Amino acid sequence: MSEERATVDDELIIDVDFVEQEKQDHPVDRKGQSSPNPLSLPRGTPSDNGRARIVTVTNQKGGVGKTTTVINIAAQLGLRGHRVLVIDADAQGNCATGLGVDKRLVKATTRDLILAPERAVESRHQTAVEGVHMIVGDRSLVGLDNELLRQLGRERRLTEAIEPLLPHYDLILIDTPPSLGIVTINALVASHGLIVPVQTEYFALEGLAMLAGTIREVRNLFSANLGVDGILLTMHNSRIQLNVQVANELREAYGNLIVDPPIRRNVRLAEAPAHGVPIHLHDPESHGGRDYLSVVLELEKRWGIDSR
Ligand SMILES: Nc1ncnc2c1ncn2[C@@H]1O[C@H](COP(=O)(O)OP(=O)(O)O)[C@@H](O)[C@H]1O
Ligand SMILES: [Mg+2]
Fold it and tell me: Is the distance from the beta carbon of residue 62 to the nearest atom of ligand 1 less than 6 Å?
């Protein structure tokens, strides 16, 4: 009996230690007393002229609007004349549905791209939007993290695979799963910049503090270039006090890293994938359609690319 109690207590103590350790690594101080600011995020770095900018859409939290953001930013960029490649690195594979790609007809996926980079060119598929191509993610990505564990140079697979595609696109957008496995690390290492969708709810700042730690590690170990192109406020409702309060906190902490306007909560965004089209083909005048357009105009400025 006493032994059993000791075990339970041990677990609790370990738990507490871990939380303390985390606080020391990334102290979240809302009164601005700590220095250097643990929330601080480096900016993305410029990409080479005539070669694609690689941007990963990431947040370790699920359901914050990553996939919705990839689909609709890619589509709007395509409609505005940019050459875009979407790479879906999430086993859920929802980008294909949202961009009108029939997964049953797909012969090569993101798994093939990572395991056999020489197949990059033939892994691409046309989407419902002219000028937007994609490499489809699917269930075959499950387990890839474990397989890569045994491989040399495992964190740079995607970087190498994408290399021959760079002259052919203006933007390469990568969707990621809500976890920090080797596939996600591959995406971060390959990237010039990140777009971070954040829901204006509790724990938004904590999530970003965690991301700041991840970026620091990736910069130290692999890519000194990785930084943030923009933090996107998603599923926002300005009539909900909590949403407004969190948005204000985020603005205070991150200033002009925040991309305006926030993406409003809008059912048209949620229903568009069922029609196999992005919001700008489904209902461009909806709140979601207008907000994503405004966000793309702002990102074009940040990336220094004009509409063609
Ligand atoms: N602005 C929004 N308004 C309403 N629903 C949204 C919005 N953005 C995303 N959704 C819906 O919320 C769910 C989660 O979004 P998703 O983009 O899949 O998040 P993630 O990729 O981060 O898991 C989806 O059902 C999506 O259609
Ligand atoms: Mg997703």
Answer: yes
